Amino acid sequence: MRIDIITIFPDYFGPLELSLIGKARASGILDVRLHDLRSWTHDRHNTVDDTPYGGGPGMVMKPEPWGEALDAVTADPPGGAGQAGAAPAVPRLILPTPSGVPFTQAHADRLAAEPWLVFACGRYEGIDSRVARDAAQRMPVEELSIGDYVLAGGESATLVMVETVSRLLPGVLGNRDSVDQDSFATGEMQHLVEGPVYTKPAVWRGHEVPPVLLSGNHGAVDRWRRDESLRKTARNRPDLLERMPAERLDRHDREVLEEARVQTGAESMAD
Q: Which of 142, 179, 190, 239 has the smallest CB count inside 10 Å?
């Protein structure tokens, strides 16, 4: 997969040299290219913003540098110009913005299947809206939000999305089962968060690992993990359970959830 990131702060993306993503880049699984938006400005101050039409606070990022940047970046597709007669490669443009569609694991799964993503990191009050409209004439465009809060710019959100998508690529994680058992993964875990996890030693500062995890009984371990996942989801993300199809819950599941809801309600009253 190729990922292009256009920003006024390329140094912000130093973490992409680290850990699993850094290894994926070094091995060629992931091709990340950083572009400084100011490279496409033409005044001595490298201006990328101006006052908004209609008045109001803040500044808006100018369309001219963004248009030139997207033209230049997308003119260099993965693998060059492609074979004669083949359709030119087209990226998917991602615009991180608090006004976008909430970014979920389902989005990450879908984007991980794309061969080429371009992230446009806005700042100030955002990017002139004509940029997205113009880009949509030649590539798919998505506005995505990582949460109901406002950041100083799109760089943090882009880091989140790039890491979420990249770890799904074949060869990035050492154990593919780690992805399948993630919170919000598809299948059984789509409407559940992951429960508690433990490692050695079996006793630490007087806290013991649950005995079932030491029992060697894989069926009992699986049941315990699902129960704990149900309890944690009921406590932290009851909204996920509301969207879970009823047929995915057996009698034992419903008993666990009822007990968890009663306990959560008692704790809320105690507060």
A: 239
- Return the closest-CA partner of residue 240 out of 192, 180, 196, 194: 192
**167 and 223 part of one domain:** no
The whole-number mean pLDDT for each consecutive block of 10 residues of the chain, a chain of 271 residues, reads 98 96 96 98 97 95 98 90 68 97 96 97 96 97 97 97 96 70 58 92 95 97 96 93 91 95 66 58
Count of structural domains, the chain: 2
Distance CA 187, CA 15 (A): 31
Active-site amino acid positions? 98, 125, 167, 182
Known binding positions? 122, 146-151
Closest-CA residue to 88 (of 101, 75, 98): 75
Binding residues for S-adenosyl-L-methionine, as ranges, are 122, 146-151
